[in-house]
Amino acid sequence: MGLTKKVLKRPVTTVLVVLCLIVFGLSSIFSSQLELIPEMEMPMLIVSAVYPGASPDDVDQLVISKIEDEIGTLSGVDSVTSMSSENFGMVLVQYDYDQDIDKAYDDLKKKLDGIKSDLPDDVDTPTIIEMDINSTPSITLAVNNDSVDNLYNYVNDDIVPEIEKLTSVASVDVSGGQEAYIKAELIPEKLSQYHVNMNTIVAALKSADFSMPIGSTSVGNKDLSVTSGTSFDTMELLKKIPITLGNGNIIYMEDVANIYNTVEAKDSIGRYDGKDTMTIGVKKNQDSDHITVSRAVQETMETLKAQDPSLEYVVVNDYSDQISNSLNSVFQTMIMAVIIAMFIIWLFFGDIKASLIVGTSIPVSILAALILMKTMGFTLNVITLSSLVLGVGMMVDNSIVVLESCFRFTDKGGGFIETRKAAIDGTAAVLESIIGGTATTCVVFIPLALISGMSGQMFKPLGFTIVFCMIASLISAMTLVPLCYVYYRPKEKENTPASGIMRALQNGYRSLMEKLLKKKAMVMGTAVVLVIFSLFLATKLKTELMPADDQGTIAVTIETQPGLKIEEVDKILQRAEDYVTQDPDLDSYMLSYGSSGLSMNMGGSGATLTAYLKDDRSRKTDQVLKEWKRDMQKWSDCSVSLESQSSLGSGMSMGNAEDLEYVLVSTQYDDLKKVSDEIVSELQKRPEATNIHSSLENSAPLVKINVDPVKAAAEGLSPTAVASQVYMMVSGTTATTLNVDGNDIDVKVEYADDEYDTIDKLQGIVLPTATGGSVALMDIADIGFKDSPQSITKSDKQYQVTITGTLTEGADSTTKDKIQKEVIDKYLSGTISMQESTSTKMMNEEFASLGQAIATAVFLVFIVMAAQFESPKFSIMVMTTIPFALIGSFLFLWLVDCPISMTSLLGFLMLVGTVVNNGILYVDTANQYRATMDFKEAVIEAGATRMRPMFMTTLTTIVAMIPMAAAYGNAGKTMQGLALVDVGGLIVSTAMALLVLPVFYVIMSGKNQDKKEIIDVD
User: Fold this and answer.
1) Minimal CA–CA distance to 584: which of 559, 606, 609, 616?
2) What is the mean pLDDT of residues 452-464?
3) Same domain flag for 195 and 312
């Protein structure tokens, strides 16, 4: 109350403070980074190793297993997942969230350095990178230029360097194209004629291109460095490189090899809307935002296009557009919420000045919150802006309560002095209530600030933002509202648009409560039954980690048979292109196949078709996805999986609740493979499941060369040396580079493409021995066919298989459990066990964290109210509004078929702090009325008196959330669950606070009904 008096005495100072808030608040808006979601850190390190020419089994046994053993000795490791494919292996090390990732990086590097000598000689040094889930490309371009000889070299030499010059760019990823190189194609007959081998040719090329420091010499008064070396920069010089024979004679490179320009064999496919293109993905650095990067890249491309009109480029995906569209929809929602809140106030008070008073407090509170957000380093994103939208409804609560109280203390014929006194007395009368309500709203977010994991990182900014809003609104209600009330001097009209309805409701309420207080057992019993029914509804709800917002993007993953020629793969991909282009809602698509894509494909036989739907599409993305999935998953010559891509990033949206996913692990690979095949066969016979696949079902045929170590040693060779030599002869090797016009071009020594393209030709390979002789490969090794897994996945050193499928229409939520009991469980044994999938494990962990936060919030709210009322009894009364709120929350989720997710659980957390406000108002008023009224009259009149402010605050909060509850805008689905929980909970809890809480108040008062509960408000 002292603060209110000081503000009324110093109005100019108060206005100047508000002016400062406006200036600094607007400055915070323009200087804040714009993102889609808050930046999050995943405590994960990725170890990758390249083993040229190795099968998945060799990569696993000779490289990955050794790395896993070393990782097992590290502390703070939560889980280890490895994937081994042809030529390549990767280990994902998931750490605890409280682990220092920099220290973990150093410890892991030391372990890997210690096993370098234990790895095969051909294995490149394993690399470590930190997982970055925020590294979504800011902009993706499809590029073409018909005037250049080689698009790959043009993009990498002329376009990429220009983009990399931008200070806001962190990295540029290129996909597609065939790299140009100079091929030195060996002529076997000439090699035999001159008694030289491939090693001799490679050595000659390397020695012809070198630079070596010699020292320094003095020339006049200067010391000059001296270097020696030779180089070549034309094809003709390359052909004339000398090769010294064993007899001393000299021949030239062109005598034993055909040297010419060519391109790499086609092993990838990249198309945009059916046209061959290359794709460029540009990622921002940490200090920049996506919008800045997108604009800079497009300006650079326009400059390049002006220099070369034949350059064609299309913006395939602009992440900044998603951000702008999503943030704009949230801004629109916020403006709608403010306008509707002011309209509701006008309905009840009938005075535009009253609406302006409350309307003035909203932007001031928002700007104050924005200043604090900027100070905390928060970005403007869907989460933080949505919290401002939520805050709009809650911010007006304090202002409405104060304004309504000021009206009650106003003498209808009073002047300035009486209005000033009414402002002071009215604010003082409800000061304890609004402080308690604000405290309970804010205190629920304390546990949110303490939890770790994904939910803590994502929702901590939301919690802080709402706390900032509530504190700002409390101060505004204590200062700005009384000040505006004194100077605006609004008049509450008796005949307002809502006054007649309110009088009727209040009169009806008094009559109804007279009856309900006589049937206390029935009222409480009905309330308990409704709570139990709501818990039953909760069991019928689906669950998901995070809802996917509708960005109009569908990712189609197509897995073909391993080893299939690229021409055959292309036919399958063209069928997929033909299918999606027939959809009228398709705007464009991008196709990527092969190892050069922007995303890493461990299996090597998978293609990704990313479809972008029209903004004005006639169907929702989920509807298109369902139709495509129904048709494409019928294709028998490939495996097709589809998912709606969310802007939340990889790993956040955990797929469709209809999908089947069972993860089995075992230490015995053969047993696991056999069981998975049997399970797939059995599931394919069940009518409630379709599109059944196993991650081990596609075995890739390969040629296995088993070197006899004894026979190899007799020739002075080791098995590793044999493998390296065979790899070089079959795959070729890069000997040097040729610098042409400032660009480096690889020079590769290879045999003709058909030199070793059959088993017989492989067996006929002749290897040089350590003594200068030669030996046929077939004399020291056995060569045959073997089925090899396309890739090998392990979880914590156990082999892992994932069996997936799709439930058919008509299957309910119990089908998954039924299939598991009838099919999966009977195959589990001592060597084979079932494991939670990564998505399920993550969801359970995050749900548990939020569940603990909710429980802690309930406890803290109880503590705050007990301190406020100085009575645990009254605190328990108010706490009954929390279970009542569950009735509406679960009912609304069930009616909209909205799954329980992290955002809906956050809604329950917020609900704990908001629904008690009506209870606080009621109990506080009832206690005051008992000082001057009969007990029963006080109980009823407290509800009748507080009905209008309850309705006003509840309506403004609900209306502010309605656009979110309706999933309005591109990012609407993200926060829909939260809004539904709060809207449903507030509606029912308000009704229960008016109808059930008085009954419970009477029951809890017991024999003390005649005791006067006097509250000192001075």
Assistant:
1) 616
2) 83
3) no
Q: For residues 247 and 149, give the distance between their C-alpha atoms in angstroms, rounded to a whole number.
A: 43
| Domain shared by 151 and 235, yes or no | no
Question: Letter for the amino acid at 718?
Answer: S
**Do 171 and 191 lie in a common domain?**
no
Beta-sheet pairing, 180-186 with 743-750: parallel
pTM > 0.70: yes
Quote the number of domains for the chain.
Answer: 5
For residues 76 and 80, what is the distance between their CA atoms, to the nearest angstrom? 11
Three-state secondary-structure class, residue 798: strand
Question: How is residue 148 annotated by DSSP?
Answer: S
Instruction: Examine the pLDDT at 586 and tell me if it is beyond 90.
Output: yes
Confidence check: pLDDT of 1017 > 60: no
Q: Cα separation of 944 and 952, whole Å?
A: 14
3-state secondary structure of 259: strand
Q: What does the mean pLDDT of the chain come to? A: 84
Pair of tokens at residue 626: 């369902």
Cα three-residue angle 594-598-599, rounded to 5 degrees: 80
Q: Is 34 domain-assigned?
A: no
Identify the bridge partners of residue 312 per DSSP, sorted by sequence position: 144
Q: Do 202 and 167 lie in a common domain?
A: no
What is the rounded distance in angstroms from the CA atom of residue 982 to the CA atom of residue 289? 32
Domain assignment present for 1007 = yes
Tens digit of pLDDT for each residue in 1-14? Answer: 578 888 888 888 88
Can you list the positions of beta strands (E) in 331-477? Answer: none
185 plus 227 within the same structural domain: yes
Question: Within a domain: residue 937?
Answer: yes
Domain of 988, CATH number, reads 1.20.1640.10
CATH code assigned at 577: 3.30.70.1430
CA-closest candidate to residue 726, choices 124, 29, 54, 234: 54
Helix (H, G, I), strand (E, B) or coil at 981: helix
Q: Domain of 208?
A: 181-263
**DSSP one-letter code for 543:** B
Tell me if 459 is assigned to some domain. Answer: no
Interval 585-596 mean pLDDT: 82
How far apart, in whole angstroms, are the C-alpha atoms of residue 428 and residue 268? 74
Q: How far is CA 702 from CA 498, 785, 891, 1010, in A?
A: 80, 6, 57, 91
SS3 592: strand
Distance, C-alpha 257 to centroid of its chain = 53
Residue 598 CA to residue 138 CA, distance in Å, equals: 13
Report the candidate in 1017, 596, 1011, 671 with the shortest Cα–Cα distance to residue 833.
Answer: 671
Q: Which two tokens stand for residue 797?
A: 């050193």
Angle at 975 (CA atoms; ends 973, 979), nearest 5 degrees: 115
Note whether 962 and 868 are same-domain residues. Answer: yes
User: d(Cα 917, Cα 884) in Å, to the nearest integer?
Assistant: 13
- Residue 146 and residue 70 in one domain: no
Q: What is the pLDDT of residues 376-386, one digit of tens each?
A: 888 888 888 87
Residue 581, pLDDT score: 94
On whether both 242 and 314 belong to a single domain, the answer is: no
Compute how many other C-beta atoms are within 10 angstroms of the C-beta atom of residue 830: 6
CATH number of domain containing 228: 3.30.2090.10
pLDDT above 70: percentage of residues in the chain: 93
721, two tokens: 């040396």
Q: Which pLDDT belongs to residue 212? A: 65
pLDDT in tens, 640-681: 888 887 655 444 444 444 578 889 999 998 889 889 889 988
Give the closest residue to 992 by CA, choosing from 1001, 980, 979. 1001
First to last CA, the chain: 9
pLDDT, mean of residues 22-46? 84
956 sits in the region (left: phi over 0; alpha: psi -120 to 50; else beta) called alpha
Confidence tier at 598 by pLDDT (50, 70, 90) = very low
Per the DSSP assignment, residues forming a β-bridge with 271 are 276, 591
Length of the chain: 1018
Give the residue from 320, 339, 356 where a domain finishes: 320
Handedness of CA 495, 498, 504, 507 (dihedral sign): negative
